[in-house]
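New to this. Comment on this protein:
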Amino acid sequence: MRNRLVLSMLALILGLSVGVELASAQARGGGRGAGGRGGLNIPPLTITTPAFEDGGIVPAEYAGRGGISPALGWTGAPEGTESYAIIFHDIDVAFGGGTDDVLHWMLWNIPGTATGLPQGGVPDGTVQGTNITGQNAYFGPGAPAGERYHHYVFELYALSTTLDLPPTASRQELLAAMNGNVVAKAAYVGRFHQ
């Protein structure tokens, strides 16, 4: 009788423990996300280019002032995506003691129906912001010669709205306008030096 009572109490304690763990997992996201172990439920937005592999060397035709923008493609945008924005920058440089790096290209209001950009072009309605050279255009990688490659990142943002910004808007203004409207983000990296 005593053994049955001990076993019953153990079963009750174990049952309560499992119930608490299940409730905790549901509160954390219902077991979705990172390998089904809980965590964040991050939309699977991805960006690619046929021009070079992620982390690979950027070919010369896409480099410098005379370079053309590579074709970009993306998949996995969540429902409700109204537009996209792209920021292309060299993350290996800082200016004037601040956190700004080299801004090579900035685009917003890419239509939400778009699944990419053609090489050397942008869809109708897309706004190109001012890059570090003061132009509203693509400016290719241009890191100096040396052993060290610079890392150039295409950041793609899926947004729940279009943005009311002029082509003269700064990167800080673009980021402020996107704040609260980002539904997914993806990145793609290229390396370059002369």
In short: The chain is about 20% helix and 25% strand. The two ends are 83 Å apart (CA to CA). Confidence is low (pLDDT under 50) at residues 1-36.
